[in-house]
Automatic annotation (TrEMBL), chains A, B:
CDD domains: MMCE
Protein name in the entry: methylmalonyl-CoA epimerase
Keyword entries, A-Z: Cobalt, Isomerase, Metal-binding
Catalytic reaction annotation: (R)-methylmalonyl-CoA = (S)-methylmalonyl-CoA
NCBIfam families: metmalonyl_epim (TIGR03081)
Source organism: Oryzicola mucosus
EC number of the protein: 5.1.99.1
A Pfam family hit: Glyoxalase_4
Amino acid sequence: MLGRLNHVAIAVPDLAAASALYRDTLGAEVTEPQPLPEHGVTVVFINVGNTKIELLEPLGEASSIAGFLAKNPAGGMHHVCYEVDDILAARDRLKASGARVLGDGEPKIGAHGKPVLFLHPKDFQGTLVELEQA
Amino acid sequence: MLGRLNHVAIAVPDLAAASALYRDTLGAEVTEPQPLPEHGVTVVFINVGNTKIELLEPLGEASSIAGFLAKNPAGGMHHVCYEVDDILAARDRLKASGARVLGDGEPKIGAHGKPVLFLHPKDFQGTLVELEQA
């Protein structure tokens, strides 16, 4: 069921500084910032060849990552995103096993224009897990 | 300089339970536990196709992840590991840019039998970064 790792997301307090670090010091390929108001974040993707790192900066008042940065002011690893062939089948299988889906349980459109869901970190060893339709 | 993502490491309080979750509920390919006394951890690798997830359980009294689990009893994302072509050249370039290398600054042999180094999370937006010789 679990497909490839689409990305690792890192919440950062300063997207421009973080992008410069990955581009200039680490020599990585970095995209332009992409605001996603419906998710309350601005994102930058770093291409590391086999997968991507997603840098997240809060956008707007109700940003979902503002609370995370309040607890981790320097930033930190926020979630991992796996691809699945059928997001509704994956959701139903996980719910049947007792895992909790965040929000209203219905997929939303994510940063890549594909349906995504988030699973409760308490059901995955403290790790927030995103599923994305492959 | 930054190569592919070799793995994402997740510290877990119960390696057997975490392995069962990834194998049975998430349907992933999971290795047998591998004790690494010199690193103070027992590891399990989960193959997700394009990269790996490394589950870490403390091993012994002086485990490097016991403190992390004391702060995060449910577990959580612990570090990311990138491959580099030349670990000494990467280290020297990072040090020249002001990044701090943990420990004595010399590579040790990691879980894959290759030289590894860890970089200070404060220099990478709160993210502990491991470099592994490709």
